[in-house]
Design goal:
This protein has about 130 residues and is mostly beta strands. It is about 5% helix and about 50% strand.
Length: about 130
């Protein structure tokens, strides 16, 4: 990638697919990914890495199964909020009204983790697409 500034609103305008992250740049061995999201993702877990979320626009919700008894809870991330899902925690992002997000993950990390429910057709199981 060329060392040029990246304007995120312009980058988001270059694609329409939901739940299909685009790699806007890399930092060391990490991808900086953006995605448009609406509706539900899939329950999944990343066994070897945390997952960082920054909400650029809209509101993202993340259901988590992180209690000792597997109980579920939900975090709500408004625009400008960040949240880290710890490695190994099952989670399901969703955005009832749509959102744009930025994620920071090791290069090669699958968007559906190592463990996941059946992947629905509207979710792109990918390691990210170059912008």
């Amino acid at each position: 990638m060329k060392p040029e500034p990246i304007e995120l609103a312009g980058a988001l305008a270059r694609f329409d697919q939901l739940w299909s992250p685009r790699i806007v740049t890399t930092v060391n061995d990490y991808d900086v990914r953006i995605a448009k999201v609406a509706g539900e993702h899939v329950w999944h877990a990343h066994d070897h890495t945390d997952e960082f979320f920054l909400v650029l626009d809209g509101e993202l919700r993340i259901a988590l199964r992180d209690g000792a008894d597997g109980a579920e809870r939900e975090v709500v991330l408004p625009r400008g909020a960040v949240f880290v899902v710890p490695r190994g925690v099952e989670h399901r992002p969703f955005a009832p009204d749509g959102a744009s997000i930025l994620m920071f993950e090791p290069s090669g990390t699958s968007s559906v983790g190592e463990r996941h429910d059946e992947v629905p057709g509207h979710v792109d199981a990918t390691t990210g697409h170059r912008l």
